[in-house]
Design goal:
The protein is α/β, with parallel strands linked by helices and about 300 residues long. The protein has a domain of about 210 residues: NAD(P)-binding Rossmann-like Domain (Rossmann fold). The protein contains 12 helices and 15 strands. It has a 7-stranded parallel beta sheet, sandwiched between helices. Strand 4, helix 3 and strand 5 form a beta-alpha-beta unit. The longest helix is centred in the N-terminal third of the chain and has 23 residues. The two termini are about 30 Å apart.
Length: about 300
């Protein structure tokens, strides 16, 4: 297959590219640097006005004849959300998806579009929902992340209208010692200073990087899967359970806790909608389609991840 990937330098993107190349696919990387540094790279302007795409048909024509596009690009949401940070988060996801969707759906720009478009999204779509079990059929929640995910997914609508299969990959927290949330937690936990956040009762949806990559390949190769897909382990845990599991694997105590008011004071809206929000999402669509997870037990998954050489 011939596949274009955006966000190819990120945690998930770099793993996807390696796996695609390993199985013999041709990979084109959508990059923002101009000029591109290799023949396998295509320059694109993720903040470009979609109405201006016909001004760059020579660049977009390189997307002709693709089998698929995997769109994973997006600025990190970690850190306090200033108005400027929110704008960057929004533009890197919604605007870039609008641009790609418009280009791929317009025959005068890309004459032979791909059969499938996989676009990143997040379980943040569901918002703070307590103990409620959330499937792809659950309603959206409230807050900045919910609004972001709704518009992010809606941005791909021109592709659906053009008859291209679209799947929205609603990622949970992806666990890997190579990047993401886990390496930021490890130093404190290894010093015995780890602890629960707030009450610890809030649910956290998680998935290992290996399972996330396998799930993406599964969705890519299953023509019946369309729309939202929860890319998450079937066994979400509470923050307290995650804290105990990580401390146990590292053989360290976890006596401390960070009060919710302190998190809200230091991280503001980011804390409220991420580490303090309860999202108990399960992968109903993947399980019904027959996907088999490798890592379903958090303790075993963490033990395996942290036993591997860096």
């Amino acid at each position: 297959m011939k596949i274009a990937v955006s966000g190819s330098s990120g945690l998930i993107g770099s793993a996807i590219v390696k796996s695609l190349l390993r199985r013999g696919d041709t990979v084109l990387r959508l990059v923002r640097r101009n000029p591109p540094s290799g023949a396998d790279e295509i320059f694109y302007r993720p903040d470009e006005n979609p109405k201006a795409i016909r001004n760059h048909t020579e660049e977009w024509s390189k997307l002709n004849g693709l089998d698929a596009v995997i769109h994973l690009a997006g600025e990190s949401i970690a850190g306090r959300w200033s108005p400027e940070k929110k704008k960057r988060i929004y533009a890197s996801r919604v605007n870039s998806t609008q641009l790609l969707a418009q280009a791929l759906a317009e025959s005068q720009v890309v004459a032979k579009p791909p059969r499938v478009f996989l676009c990143a999204s997040a379980v943040g779509y569901y918002g703070d929902r307590g103990r409620e079990i959330l499937t792809e059929e659950s309603a959206a929640g409230k807050g900045f992340l919910t609004g972001l995910c709704k518009e992010w997914e809606a941005a791909a609508r021109p592709l659906t209208e053009a008859g291209i299969r679209v799947a929205h990959l609603r990622f949970a927290v992806v666990l890997s010692p190579q990047g993401g949330a886990l390496p930021r937690m490890l130093p404190l936990f290894r010093l015995g200073l780890g602890g629960r956040l707030g009450s610890g009762a809030q649910y956290m949806s998680w998935i290992t990087l290996e399972d996330a990559v396998c799930a993406i390949f599964f969705v890519l190769d299953q023509p019946s899967i369309i729309g939202p897909v929860n890319v998450t382990s079937p066994n979400p845990v509470t923050n307290a359970e995650f804290t105990r599991a990580l401390a146990s694997v590292l053989r360290r105590p976890a006596w401390f806790s960070v009060p919710a008011p302190l998190l809200r004071w230091s991280l503001g809206e980011f804390a409220e909608e991420t580490v303090l929000a309860s999202t108990r999402a399960i992968p109903q669509k993947l399980r019904k389609a027959g996907f088999s997870f490798q890592d379903t037990d958090l303790n075993q998954a963490l033990s395996s991840l942290l036993a591997r050489p860096a």
